[in-house]
Amino acid sequence: MAAHTSQSVAKAAGSEVGPDTDVAARGRSRRTDSKNGTRGGNRPGLRRALATHWYAWAMIAPVVLVLGVIIGWPLVRGVYLSLTDATERNVGRTIGANHIEATYQFVGLDNYADVLADPVFLQRLVWTVLWTVACVSITFALGLALATMLNRDFKGRAAYRMALILPWAVPGFVSVFAWRFLFNRDSGILNKLLEGGGISAVPWLDDPTWAKVAVIAVNVWLGVPFMMVALLGGMQSVPGELYEAAEMDGAGPWQRFRHITLPGLRAVSMTVILLSTIWTFNMFPVIFLLTRGGPGDSTEILVTQAFREAFVSSPRDFAGSATWGVLILLLLMIFALVYRRSLRKQGEVW
Fold first, then answer.
1. Nearest to 119 by CA among 329, 316, 293, 297
2. How far apart are CA 280 and CA 220, in angstroms?
3. How far apart are CA 146 and CA 232, in angstroms?
4. On the CB side of 39, how many CA atoms lie within 13 Å of its CA?
5. 196: pLDDT confidence band, cut at 50, 70 and 90?
6. Which of 222-226, 240-244, 290-294, 343-347 has the lowest mean pLDDT?
7. What is the pTM of this model?
8. How far apart are CA 55 and CA 51, in angstroms?
9. Of the candidates 337, 282, 344, 18, which has an alpha carbon nearest to the alpha carbon of residue 124?
């Protein structure tokens, strides 16, 4: 009865207002929207956004400017050089009071064709992928295991946490040089321990296979603290009521870990795996400081090859180094896009 009454009142009000008033109201609404800079009443115009959020734009402007200078300009310059034949012989340079003009020329995509056709690129790419997958997989497994152990209450937990985070606090080059001393074939501590047990010395940095094992071990040692801290934070954010309810239902430790801990860590895990993959793919210090890419070129990855083109080879090939750098960037962008699409298929928002 009340519904019928309200409808009747609405109809009566509509009949009193009339169609002309309706048209006028719609016209005023359109004019108001157009004055506000909206189209269809949904998307604010640029002028309105600047006027409304000018303070936010002013705050991020310095950051955008700094990123443009530090990242944007070198990136644009690198892409441009990759399309030329620039070397140390034809770039512009100043010798004393004399300035020599640049004579390099635009060659288009010739550098990319040369690099992709070179067997060295495939060799570096295969080892870089293997190195990245091995380091990220082992780092994640160890970080997850340590985080699980440290997520429990026991005596001395804070001291254990500090000890496990220590490799993260030490500067990277110091850690690598310390490991280089440990891996020394003649006077290294590792080989001394092996000889004490009756095992012959291992050529850690002199054999291609052992050198690859060594660089993976050092990078894992450096990466485990970050992975452990991130996963431990994710575990502590899982509600404890879920574990209590599962325990009351008779779920064992493995079942609780599988059905509560792992799903609760999915968002954190996806993020740290992505970051760790990008960092490991471009991990220049470990390779360069520990093995210099050797023995021979057995441990060279893509980024160290780009460095070699620009600073080691003679004449220094700036265009070739830029080409390697752009290809590395494209590979990481493709990986990030594929990774994002796979997460969206699994229902994750990223």
1. 297
2. 10
3. 8
4. 3
5. confident
6. 343-347
7. 0.79
8. 9
9. 282
Report pLDDT digits (tens) over 46-79.
778 777 878 888 888 888 888 888 888 889 999 9
Terminal CA-CA length for the chain: 51
Residue 81 CA neighbour count, 13 Å, CB half: 24
Residue 12, pLDDT above cutoff 50 = no
Query: What is the chain's length?
Result: 350
Residue 341 and residue 336: Cα distance in Å, rounded?
A: 9
pLDDT tens by residue, 257-282? 888 988 889 889 998 999 999 999 99
H-type helices in 36-154, by residue range? 46-52, 54-67, 73-81, 110-117, 119-150
What are the tokens at 217?
A: 């071990």
Alpha carbons 229 and 62: distance in angstroms, whole number:
32
To 10 degrees, the CA torsion angle through 151, 152, 154, 156? 0
Q: Decide: 280 and 222 in contact? Cβ < 8 Å.
A: no
